[in-house]
Amino acid sequence: MKIPSTIWTLLIGIVLTLTSLWYGQNHGLLPTAASDEAPLVDGLFNAMMTVSTGIFLIVEGVLIYAVVRYRRRAGDNEDGPAIEGNVPLEILWTAIPAIIVIGISVYSFDVYNNMGGFDPHSAHAAPMMEESMNMPGTAMAATLKEASVQVAQLDNNSDTVTKPAELVVNVTGLQYAWLFTYPATEVTTGELHLPIGKTVEINLTANDVIHAFWIPEFRLKQDAIPGRQTNLRFTPSKTGEYNLICAELCGPYHGVMKSPVVVETQEAFDQWMQEQLIASKDIPNQTMAMNADKFLSPYIQDMGINSEILHQIK
């Protein structure tokens, strides 16, 4: 029994489609999903992987078939028949990629919109801030101050924000570190702590050159631009310690620009915040003690004051 070529084509197409669907949904190439937004990106990636695998199998299958079917045989020195153009085939291989690209584009825009990318009140449309000053410390302070003003404006205009963030963090990138400030407590640290299940708003800027805020497990990546504030919103969904990585070449030590991101329970987060508050209050006292030792020690002998009395005075 001879099976028609159209049936063979249909069967091969079904096998290739099933193979691409299986591989596209079970490849396991992405890291652990640790935010509520991660499944949206994973779904888009899986869809693109499925389509790409199917196209690869079809193209390679046609190439292999052509190599075997139309290979040069012994004793055959004649050229094949001249074929010029095939309008239906050209329309087909133009229309199919166009449909695929349009479909992926619509899907991508939908994912971007669901992650808040088209929110008119997001910082993607934030106005330009003042130009950074020449002194790095001054520029960083100005950046953080402007970020705090932006947050205050959002909080005061509650009618324009559909869902207020439960935690706001101002993040500044500078060569070669990340700085995190919690406006509610004025705590500034070198590591990012987040409570699980809480909506987090990141107000992002840079102090010197362009950096990129990237947490692979959260499926988030956003450029940090000097003089401009950008915005991210997400909800951590899995406790653990992750890495915030700079994904934009920012200088010779770009590869070491990483900071820990700790997602923990609300109780653990509150305890950590209290520890940071206590530590920040102790810093001025420690500074005063060091200054007293530095500036008073040359005179204590002339005044008849020993070091024990000096420490009691402090």
Task: Report on this structure.
- The chain is of the alpha+beta class and 314 residues long.
- The protein is 47% helix and 18% strand.
- The chain contains six helices and ten strands; from the N terminus they run ααααββββββββββαα.
- A five-stranded mixed sheet has the order 3-2-1-5-8. A five-stranded mixed sheet has the order 4-10-9-6-7.
- Helix 1 packs antiparallel against helix 2 and helix 2 (38-69) runs antiparallel to helix 3 (87-114).
- The longest helix has 38 residues, at 266-303.
- The protein starts with a helix and ends with a helix.
- The model is unreliable at 120-161 and 287-292 (pLDDT under 50).
Strand and helix layout:
Blueprint: H1 5-26, H2 38-69, H3 87-114, H4 136-156, E1 167-174, E2 177-182, E3 187-189, E4 192-195, E5 200-206, E6 211-215, E7 220-224, E8 230-234, E9 240-246, E10 258-264, H5 266-303, H6 307-313
Parallel strand pairs: 1-5, 4-10
Antiparallel strand pairs: 1-2, 2-3, 5-8, 6-7, 6-9, 9-10
Helix pairs in contact: 1-2, 2-3
Low-confidence stretches: 120-161, 287-292
Alpha carbon gyration radius: 30 Å
* Helical percentage: 40-55%
Strand percentage lies at 15-25%
Order of helices and strands: HHHHEEEEEEEEEEHH
Count of runs of 4 or more consecutive helical residues: 6
Question: Which structural class matches the secondary elements?
Answer: alpha+beta
The shape is: elongated
End-to-end separation in angstroms reads 103 Å
Major sheet, described briefly? Answer: 5 strands, mixed
Q: Order of strands across the biggest sheet?
A: 3-2-1-5-8
> What is the total tally of β strands?
10
